[in-house]
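Exercise 7. Predict the joint structure of the components listed below.
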Amino acid sequence: MTPAIILSDALGGQLINLCAAIMLLLGFAMLAQRRILSLINLFMLQGAVLFTSTVIVAYTTHQSHLYWSAGLTLSLKVIALPYILHRLIRKLSVKWDVETILNIPTTMLVGIALVVVAFNVAQPISQLSGTIMRATIGIALACVLLSFLMMITRSKAVPQVIAFLAMENGLFFAATSATYGMPMVVELGIALDVMVGMVIFGVFFFQIRQQFDSLDIRHMERIKEE
Amino acid sequence: MNFYALIAQLIELVAALLLAPLLVGWVNQCRAWLQNRTAPPLLQTYFTLHKLFRKEVLLAHNASPLFRAAPYAIFACMALASAIVPTLSTNLILAPAADAIAFVGLFALARVFIALAGMDVGTSFGSLGSRREMLIGFLAEPALLMVFFTASLISHSTSLSSIVQTLTRTDLIIYPSLAFAGTAFTMVSLAENARVPVDNPTTHLELTMIHEAMILEYSGRHLALIEWAASLKLFAYSCLGIALFVPFGISATALPTDLLLAASCMLIKLAIGGFVLALIETLSAKMRIFRAPEFLGTAFLLAVLAMLVHLLLETGR
Amino acid sequence: MSELVLVLAIPLITSAVLALAGHRQYAANINIAGSLLTLLAAALLTVRVISDGPLNALEEQFFVDPLNVFLIALTALVGFTTSVFSRPYMRIEHDHGKLSSGRLRLYHSMFQMFMCTMLVALSTNNIGILWVAMEAATLATVLLVALYRTPESLEAAWKYFILCGVGIAQALFGTILIYFAAEQVFVHEEGAMLWTHLYAYRTELEPTILSLAFVFMIVGYGTKTGLVPLHNWLPDAHAEGPTPVSAVLSGLLLNVALYAIIRCKVLVDGALNTHFAGNLMMGFGLLTVVVPSFYLSRQRDVKRLFGFSSIEHMGLVTFAFGMGGGVASFAGLLHMTVHSLTKSAIFFAVGHAAQMAGTQVIDEIKGLIRRSPTIGWGLMLGSLAILGMPPFGVFTSEFMILTTAIKHYPWATPVLLIALGVAFASMFGKVQNMAFGEPTVKPLAHNPALLPVFLHLGLVLILGLWIPPYLSEWFRQAARMVG
Amino acid sequence: MSRLALIDWVLITALIWLALGIAGVFLAHRFTVISRVLFPLGAINSLVLGILALVGLLSETQELILPIGLPGLPFHLRLDALSSFFLFLLGATSAGISIYAAGYFRKSQSAVLGLQCLLYHAFLTSMSFVLLANDGYAFMVAWETMALSSFFLVTAEHRHPEIRRAGYLYLLIAHIGSVAILLSFGLMAGSTGDYTFDAMRQFADGAFWRTTAFLLALVGFGAKAGILPLHVWLPEAHPAAPSPVSAMMSGVMLKTAIYGLLRVGFDLLHAHTWWWGLLLLLVGLATALFGVVFSAVQTDMKRLLAYSSIENIGLITLGMGLTLIFRAFGMTGFASLALTATLYHCLNHAFFKSLLFLSTGSVLHATGERNLGKLGGLIHQMPWVAWLALIGVLASAGLPPLNGFVSEWLLLQSFLFTPEVPHGYLNMLLPVFAAAIALIAALAGFTMVKFFGVVFLGQPREEKLAQAHDASRLSRLGLLWLAAGCVLLGLMPNVIVSLLDPVMQLLIGFGRQLDARPENWLFLAPFYEERASYSPIIFFCGIVAMTLVSWLAVRRYFHSRAKRVPPWDCGFPLQTGRMQDTSEGYSQPIRRIFSPFFKRTRQHPSPFDAQPRYLSIVEDPFWYWLYLPVAWIVEQGTRVVDFLQRGRIAIYLLYSFATLITLLVLTRG
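Solution:
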């Protein structure tokens, strides 16, 4: 191996960890966010970070197919989905601020607890991880759990969906940076699913609006056991 | 089965058929004496039977064949019963055919027939009577059976003749259990023969009558048969009581000499028994029908107690 | 391998065709034809596997072994019968004006798409593709559940979508973890996602990672299997979707999700060689048997009722696989088979019953046997079969499961039995009142296709009395693999 | 073709029934074919089976393995003395019932007749398989099929809600019972996991597991036999079913439960624990007493018979318990005597109870009434049924010289040996059971008199009864067959008893307990004649002779005419059917004496009532002691789980979230 690569390796490692930290930060920011538009922007930012981290991994490990997946991320998570979401919001003229079931500070506290759990769980994995990025799995897991929490606490359809997508981000991050990306077929498949899922969400928004003339999912509590 | 057994059997049967009404007559006479009445003639029962046999039969419109057949069946049952009881000798032909349990079954058969006959015409009194009869029956039967059980636990057998044989042979061992059994037996036989504390054979007062209520619709020869059967029943019971509790004198063989001796003892014992019955009837008062179950329940419990006493005191352990 | 390609391709093509012509009068026939072809291809495949044993295809991305071959055959069969059933059913729905022809097109095309995704999920060798196929199946069925666009159906679909989406996401994380663990083993990383390779190297995989992975897997795919407490979407989706969809949902989808869990279990057992996965599955299984049996007794919606019963049976199967061992796994596979046959048959009958009564409310469905004996008896016999009455096959598998439980886990037996007893008491009373009594239901406009019902019940009956040797041979091999 | 073994023939007869049933489905609309051809054929088949079973009693045990069933566990069949005896019972009884059924169905029912035919014959087939099965799986399949087919027969008239309720209750309790049986098999198969009965015979785990297995079997078979407190389905299901079916259920199906209990208790577990026997005695006593007291107060004739079936099952259980105790103390001779009584009572009950149920069927058929308060005087309209029913009534009242008495006699005889039991308290306690049995028998007499008297005697209580018609020819034939069975079983018990010997050998390992030597064909005598003896034939001849003699004598000497007049009745002017005792009135003393048994609601009219009405409902207290509480518990459970499903998606997400976190933490820690 040439020293340059090693150097860049170490550097790449640091960069990746930086990205990971930013991911987690953004996760918290989304959890705390009250305004829907900035929620979307944060989601876009997260996508961008994901893209950079993927590129870095691709560069440091010289895996060409990771560039592809980076491209996918860029086009899908940074450009396409935010755009669709913006249009949807304009179309559906959703109220701009987001109501949460749980109030923000509590949510944050729970989130921190979650991060602790996630790290604790991921510890053995990161220990035996031969790759340069140690903590990334833990952080990815933390992101996933945070988005999960967000899905629970948000009472509107759109934020819930954004949280869902953020969860996908976390998974992607785990897939690309913890393991050097999955086989191409899988990544394509996943991307496709996300895309279709998004479209279906879009359809649903309109339907739900039609039926309940609001996107508040608290209207959808009819089917239950008495 | 030897020749003497056959003879003894026939003698017993005939004797029972002939003497049964006499016993009833004797009881009535004693009662009359005890109640300071002038007694009817001793043979009054025979006269009544004769008169009834001669009389025309009046059948209710909707009387079924069962109604007409019942008297014969009842009579047959009673005759057979009194034939089975070892009155004179324990060496009888019919003895092995039916043991104590079958004997009780025989009485039950007769009772069922008369109860059904009572319901057949469908009058208010008939069904009332048969209900009461069955009520008394289902309490009296087990009591009687338990009396037999005590005896047969003593003698390790349920066949009447071997019971009586054992009881005659074991001279003068006092069985406390038999005392209980005897009391129970007396109570049962009072109830079974429609005697005073439970029923009154001489009344037709609607509220109290049991036996009479069932046979209200009978007349003529049918009534005669039933009355005769009733007297046979009394006779059989008395002989049974005697055979179980004061058995001495009943011969194990069937030789003519023994039979004569046995017959004479038997007559004396029957006379005494009849007097005792009359005495009881005079001294006790007719009880309400609802009290009858308690009376018989007591009898039943006494009988069971007798059995337990036997198991406690008299068995080897 | 050509058969395998056929099996996967035919539904895809049919779906494409129906996407264009699904609203036509003859669309239903195309649907049936496509399913029939799939069934034939699956039969060919089965024959091939019987003759030459397991096979790989498309550079090992797909494979067929005893474990999935009969599931493929079963899926194709139930898909075919369901398409036969849905022809008159959907026609009636259409006549009642519940569905526009556009929706009909969506239905037909999505139905085939769903079949395709199932078959892919069953036959793929790549756990990543397995995940993709499961997600795709979810998306397809979401559209199917929401077909009527009534508020209830939308709500049900939304819940289904969100809950299963989240669940599936967990499963993806598990998949990534397995892949991550595999990378530690394989120097050459291609094939690190192929189940066969993982199976070959299963003992060398890192235990801690795999245990975590299995947790994610069972939570993820368990959501789709309907394990308590992840089951909440299931009754809603069953009740609000069109009946053919309910039939394939509980008949097939649950099986496939469970199949995914079983595949992971094999790897995890290999890596840990403890009973960790088994215990986890047994725990979920018991919970999933007991809780739904209590839901049953106060149900008012008939399809919901049977949805809960499906949950219960999935719990039973999970418990069986959790116990492990030859007999239990055998019983589990058998139970998967008979349950999907019986339950889809029941849903066929229930669907027409609901159409006759014009409602799904149990108390308003009465006297089916008087009005239409075939439907009534189908419902009655099907329910008795699902309640574990001999001589139907469900009893056979329950017999094996219970006896194994008595042998190895005596403490679990009374729990199972109480649950089954309660389920019997609460379900049979309702079914009896639906089938018997003075009719309140009206006859159908088009005469129903009840061949599927009695075909399924007949198969279940045969399985109850006699299991064909080659089938039992498959089951044995599969059971040996599952361990 | 190679010669077929006996068991093959038995199997074939069983399958012929099935074939007849299926034929019935295909000929569904040919009423006459089904009723006049298929059912009689079935009856003939029953006869053949009965004969085969008799041969089986005398020949060696035979086994057979069918190529169906589980992969590891094909159907094992076995024809030994015990199963042969019960197969004989099945064949002999069902012959009468089938021929009766042939004449029973109306044209109006022909719509469902094909299905009925199938179910009826499937019922028969499954019962014979229950008796043949030699492994747990085959037994369970046959057992549940039996329950299922009989359930559909019971709910034939499913338009009426109460019949649906009855069927539901029946199947539910049957299912619970079968689960218990399954568990007991599981315990006996134990660690071997081998479910053939041969393997279970080797089951030799600790006393605890044996006892558990036995108790589970007791619960399971008790649920089918109607042993307290699992009897509640019986008085509901029997009236609901068509009469041939109730006859079959009460006469034969209950006996299959007894068979199962014998098979498990004696053959598989070869019981040696005396307190099992005591337990059986206690439940048996409770069942018998409860059954007879309740049957005495019933106002519906089929419910009355159903409760009386409970009573008889109780007696049979008593016999079994006594056998067990004797066997446990190694007194095999007495044990086999008691077992003879038990089996003989099974046979007797099969005959007289199906006879009675069929006669109620004819009454129902002719009048459409089941309520005792609306019947009466039918002996005039339907003499055949009445006189044949009288035989059944006398038999079931346990009166000599009919069959009911024989088994009672044997039972009491065997109780007389209990003082020999080498156990301090038992030998005091057991004779008291004999007293109770005597009481029960006498009460049965009361009940039967009430039944016959109210239904067939007296004046009709309704006008329409005048149009009642007698049973059809085929039905009469069926009744006749069963009545003849009652008489023959009563008159020549020795034959049957000597046939029972192989069963004794099988279950007790000791036969020849009764002095039933061919030269001593006349007398039924346990051990030796002086001990006790009973000769039904002499007895019978005695009664007949006496009757004839008295009748002839009276005819000869007093041939006075009989005149028809209005009934006298102490000179009451007018007599209406309303003035006779109703069935409530008849059973009033029982209600009074045994009042603690009942849960009753009464409402007496006040003296100033314009339209006085009297209401007295007697309910089974076990509903309130056992069943309603259980239902309540389940109800609470449903409320709890319903609380989990509140339709809120956030909550649902929270569930999975919590599950995930918990599992992760657990796995990690």
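Discussion. Chain C touches chain D through 65 residues (CB under 8 Å).
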